[in-house]
Task: inverse folding
């Protein structure tokens, strides 16, 4: 048995140096954060491994957008699955809007009058919808008859004027999936056209062919989840199709196992389903993504050239 | 100010009698549970109000299936939005399978060998997939060219051999939405056909027309959420289109506000978005659905003839 | 394996009837609530079993005071351990004050000006301190030289003018422990006298003799925890001294295991310490006490004559 | 309004550099962590401010011991309040024992046979009790008639053979309080002597004089809480006596507000009680202490010479 090594800090440390000490402590959230970095590093460096990244929660209103874009540009991940909200927030920023530092105890009726939509303590200007409406209207013809949501999103990325998660996926040919795209501001914009009797042919099940094929043909697979929801579950579902189940797993969320939902389920539960290899290296960390993601990214950046 | 009235129990009480006492205590989870029943009662009895029910989490593996079916049959709700997992578990039971009482600390590798998929401490027999595969194969032709997911689900309900959530919605003409249907066992079954180059035309955005139309034409709207995820968010999105935002709201979940995601966001946050009327009657309750749902249903059953 | 039996509610049910159905569902929070009642019933009916009740959290501001008093009067429990806050709130009510239904989002500075101390959404009138000050001053001579905190509390109970938790313990000769009594409003009142150079001889460690003796001489022991903190830990510590460790255990809390503290630790962790018998009947339930306690009490009331 | 500045990481960063970026993002847990460091820095640098540190939870089994000792040695804090468990774990390590990296899913009955006490995923060797028993027996005469728990603990620190939290407090003349000292392994060791009819005169209320005096005579006060429980509440209680209530506050815990207990209560609740100045700089962060404490310490180490 390894002892718990107490973290001792005597001089300025880089993020990775601190993470190494957390790893050496080896227990509780600190130890799990250390292990998370180790496992992310291993799966990214493993040439045979396809890395599936699931993103849920307010990552863009929470300041994580550049890190996500850089993870894609670094080609650390091979597949991205996310929520409609993340793509909406991302598109909003790509169109020149910002999110703002707010107050969770603000008067919501007053925010509504002033045109700010609250996301806990981050504010999204409601005007973002006007910009998106114009953008979608301008490009509607190019979007409406994409066959799959992934094709729809790559086209969206291609059309996006500035740096974005969506555009980074398009440019780097990283498949981007969003099964519940209709449940989002982007969905609302598309609805504006449907309501005028325009047809939008994008199919609900079509993407399954592509993500299942990636899973099926992978030599190994690794999963990284920030948050749960559809992104995690959709990747987990694909893991059932990988020849050897997932070989690596990192789950970071504030959701808990005991309500029994997929979002908070421990990764080991996936072993019973054949989603996770019993011999896989995996770790569950209960921590807010806005703390864990920058630390993990900064530490990996020191480790991976 | 009203005093906290201590709950005093001197003789056997019906569930509703106990809930009345909790309401009279008036604070913390007990008070909020009392208020939840009051608000559900009010929105169900309000003839002008369309009630939107969002369901997420392991409700079928958790024993809530009959209650959900009865809420639909009673026509207490006008719209149901749920997850693919719930519909998969529901279909499995309609095909004659059961979920089993298990152990959250079981050996997952052994469960895998024995063919049981663990959902926290509930087990789903893996054979359920065989039954579903046959069922979907048998009816594929009837399902593949439905235009919207709602139409697909009503058809599924029509075809379902026994009582089910899906069938209850079909029979009672309650619109049933599931934006992320592809993220589920049902999705997997459909994928089996896509993989053999069959076409499935169901459209991703199509349902928005229908749910938005219901919202748009409602005189009043009420929302009841057990769990968050896509079901809650999709309904909240529709609330932006109701003429007066939601007039009633009950949210029951184990998710918390502070990670900033939609699932745990307090209902009042919706005021800033124009999803919730500032004058609405609403309550957030942090409680497991498997405790809250039977209590609320039993209490309502005593109150609503 | 037992199937998950879906809860079906067709007519008004008593609380115990609903709990039986939850027990028959058998999983997740509902199943655990059912099991909690079964285990409480078993330990209370077991004539050889000493029942240790740990109480933490805002049970009096939350409306649970009468239930606690009745559990003591019924002699369902043999030992009570609680926090200084609970005894302070209890004494306040015994002196004629009430707690009030408030708003968690109230303006705290305004509440301060108006003389209300907020406990989440329950308000305690600050005047309670005046009444307590008079009460303690009047009886200081009788309290100051009690040797143990338990003796101090029984004396407090004896002096209490009306029904109270403290008085119920005194009258029924149920030992009441509160290791951190100095950390409370009662502590503050005593400090007022210490500050005037009066001596208060009550000893910090003295109670250990009594609680350990009860544990040591018990044939069997059962533990019921509402909340964690010192009350749980103090009882758990005593369980190390019981001849056979605890034979029954029910833990109900909103605290979680993963931060690693005693409050949220699962009962099975106690097996490693020799606090819990590996063959014990025990259950952990993550649920707010203000919901679980009335349900459990009401169900037990139907079962225990 | 300030925009949410996305965290961008292009080169190795020191911990403080990353924290600055989190502060600039400004929202959610990352923003709160940034603010936590700012407020800790401000209160430590404010010469007029007495800093009260509350420590609860498994900080020693979690690898935080050296950081806590260094915070004391740096004289960043003026008062420390903690749990009996922390002092027990600390004394165990000072006597040469270690905690070990374990598995939360281990077989607890087997751990019991092997002599390891589990603290989530950290193991404490049961032999620690033998060493403590000898140590306390050897020094019992010097400990038994200390008048207050603080005096008892300083004496314990004086006697401790190696570096420890307790000894660091003694050597640096930092008052160390532990109201529930009897609820701990140290308490158990003292009980061993009480059981042999030895007298231990340490008084339960006595410390209140000292902590209240420090609060009363402070020009300003700041509070830092890792975890809740008695340590937080005992300091909060003292804040009622400071002339101006607390001027700074940082609370880091995994406990939540909604159960209504003191542990998870937001700091702003203290304003209603007169514990927190409405104009104070304060922040609540929901994060595991084993992640937050090393980051905060490392960042402060870069900022404070």
Result:
């Amino acid at each position: 048995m390894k002892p718990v090594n107490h973290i001792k800090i005597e001089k300025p440390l880089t993020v990775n140096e601190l993470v190494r000490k957390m790893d050496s402590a080896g227990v509780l959230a600190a130890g799990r954060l250390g292990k998370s970095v180790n496992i992310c590093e291993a799966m990214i460096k493993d040439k045979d491994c396809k890395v599936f990244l699931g993103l849920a929660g307010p990552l863009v209103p929470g300041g994580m957008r550049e890190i996500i874009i850089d993870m894609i540009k670094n080609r650390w991940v091979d597949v991205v699955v996310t929520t409609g909200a993340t793509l909406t927030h991302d598109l909003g920023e790509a169109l020149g809007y910002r999110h703002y530092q707010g107050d969770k105890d603000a008067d919501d009726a007053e925010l509504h009058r002033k045109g700010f939509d609250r996301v806990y303590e981050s504010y999204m200007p409601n005007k973002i919808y006007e910009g998106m409406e114009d953008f979608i209207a301008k490009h509607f013809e190019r979007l409406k008859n994409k066959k799959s949501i992934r094709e729809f999103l790559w086209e969206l990325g291609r059309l996006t004027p500035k740096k974005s998660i969506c555009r980074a996926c398009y440019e780097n040919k990283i498949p981007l999936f969003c099964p519940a795209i209709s449940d989002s501001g982007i969905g609302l914009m598309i609805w504006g056209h449907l309501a005028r009797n325009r047809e939008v042919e994008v199919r609900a099940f079509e993407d399954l062919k592509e993500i299942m094929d990636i899973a099926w043909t992978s030599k190994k697979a690794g999963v990284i989840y920030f948050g749960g929801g559809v992104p995690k579950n959709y990747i987990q579902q694909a893991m059932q199709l990988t020849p050897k189940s997932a070989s690596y797993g990192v789950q970071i969320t504030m959701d808990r196992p005991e309500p029994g939902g997929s979002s908070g389920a421990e990764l080991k539960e996936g072993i019973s389903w054949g989603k996770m290899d019993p011999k896989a290296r995996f770790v569950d960390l209960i921590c807010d993504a806005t703390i864990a993601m920058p630390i993990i990214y900064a530490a990996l950046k020191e480790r991976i050239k």
About this structure: The two ends of chain A are 33 Å apart (CA to CA). Strands of chain A lie at 49-55, 79-82, 100-101, 116-119, 122-125, 176-177, 220-226, 246-253, 276-286. Residues 268 and 276 of chain A are 7 Å apart (CA to CA). Chain A has 13 helices and nine strands.
